[in-house]
Every structure is written in C-alpha cells, then in structure tokens.
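Figure S7 source data.
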Amino acid sequence: MISEVFSSIMGEGKFIGRRYIFIRFKGCPLNCIYCDEYTKNDMPCRVEEVSGSGIFKEYINTAENNNLIEIINKIKTPDLFAISFTGGEPLLYADKIKEYSDILNDLGHKTHLESNGMFPDKINYFDYSSIDIKLKEHFDFNNFNSKKYDELYNNELKSIEKLYNLGSDVYGKVVIMENTTPETVEQVAKDLSDIGDDIILCIQPVSPFKDIKSPSQQNLLKIMEVCGNHLGDSVICTSQIHKYLGML
Ligand SMILES: C[S@@+](CC[C@H](N)C(=O)[O-])C[C@H]1O[C@@H](n2cnc3c(N)ncnc32)[C@H](O)[C@@H]1O
Ligand SMILES: Nc1nc2[nH]cc(C(=O)O)c2c(=O)[nH]1
Ligand code: SF4
Ligand SMILES: [Mg+2]
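Tokens for the predicted magnesium ion complex:
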C-alpha cells in the first residue's frame, strides 16, 4: 500500500516551500508520459529514519494506523505545515486514507491530498488539496482514446468542485510541456473559473523527463496570461523546486 514516508519541502503547487511529511501510496491507473514517480510503484516500503536525512529503513508493512502514526510522530518537526497523501494515486486507498486523516486531524495536523482527480466518488475532506488536471497530450494515445480522456477530465472537474464545496483549500495544477498550446490550458482556466474564481491554477512546467522538454519562457508566460483572462491573478507558475534543491 505505502511505498515511502519522508519529510521534505513541498516542491510543487500552492504551498511550495512549506515543510511536509509525504506519504506515498503505490499504484496508479494512469500513465502520464511525464510521471517521475511511476517506478516507485513496485518498490518495497521505505520510511525515513531521521527527519529529512534521506536515510531510509525498509518496512514490510506500514498499513497499521499505529505504525504509520508512530512514524509521523517520530519524523515530525516544529516547522511541519501539513501531511501529504500522494502516490501513485492515493485515492485507490480512499477508505484507509480517510481513517489516517481523521486521526491526524485529531492530533492537530493538517492534511493534503495530491490526486489526479479521477475518482470524484472517493473524495473526502482534506484541509488542502491539489488536483492535477491532465491534458490529452499527457498520454500516449495508443491506449487512451478521446472518450476516455473526456471522462477523466470531467471527473477531475467534479473532484475539484466536490473539494471546493467541502471547504477544502483546493487548487488545480496542470503540467505544461514544450508544445502545450495556450488555448488548451485556457479551457482549463475557464472551466475552473466556472467552479470558483478564487481557485488557484498552478501552471507547472514539466521537469525534463526522457525526451519531454519544458516550455519556452514565451510560451509559459503566454499560457499564464490567457489563463488570467478567466482567473485573474489566481494563476501561479510552480516548478518542482525539490529537484533544484536535490531533495526528495
Ligand atoms: C506523482 S503525482 C502523484 C499524485 C497524483 N497521481 C497526481 O498526478 O497528482 C504528483 C505530481 O507530480 C507532478 N509531476 C510528476 N512528474 C512530473 C514532471 N516530470 N514534471 C513536473 N511535474 C511532475 C504532477 O504535477 C503530479 O501532480
Ligand atoms: N518535495 C516534494 N514535493 C512534492 N509535491 C508533490 C510531490 C509528489 O510526488 O506528489 C512531491 C515530491 O515528490 N517531493
Ligand atoms: S496520475 Fe499521477 S501518479 Fe499517475 S501517472 Fe500521472 S502523474 Fe504519475
Ligand atoms: Mg514527486
């Protein structure tokens, strides 16, 4: 179920720079061509021994609440902002994560969901939530047809709306690549603004991955501007700072 637990700086999205504990869950039904975590799905579970040390101990099973909660108590730090449930796709384990997040909230911690939004029916309340809005170009279209994509996109909007209505501090994130067009992302911004014009859209230039390249400065800025037509200044560029810092 869990592939790793570690403490680091939030490297993406609206809360970039904040101290987090990340709980990464295994497995994902999607296969985004840029995904930098896909290979972790078949790793044995590893848990950081000392907060931020990057020194891990392998565990066979952290599925028990007391074990995971114990681990969090051991690696939490005074600057801890929130605990992220990520993956893979964490909502594959929605019931278990609901249990964990209720315990963590009772212990005074904030929770953060990092999800691809494909399971709106599995959405529960999280203090913070990031829904990664996928674009058609994020998939190898040999196994991802237009009908399947439209269903995914609509589910992502439903997940954002559900989290918004639950009172979660929810934001959208969209990875843009070298050839992503402003029109494509503008549609995302328009659809988000129909849910709530105070929802932040994070434009995340892809970190180079295999032969996938980042967008030019001009393209990035053009994309942000057209999104601003719908979301005003609720548009921010966030690129994976943990990679620049050489951190997990
Ligand atoms: C690994 S996914 C796990 C959570 C969830 N499945 C999702 O897609 O949001 C976490 C985030 O990593 C980001 N990501 C993965 N690979 C990336 C890359 N090469 N460049 C930029 N962001 C990337 C995506 O924005 C994604 O939201
Ligand atoms: N530092 C750091 N920040 C992150 N924000 C989202 C991440 C993810 O993989 O879900 C991530 C990650 O893997 N590392
Ligand atoms: S949905 Fe998230 S975990 Fe799954 S392949 Fe895409 S980026 Fe990776
Ligand atoms: Mg990551």
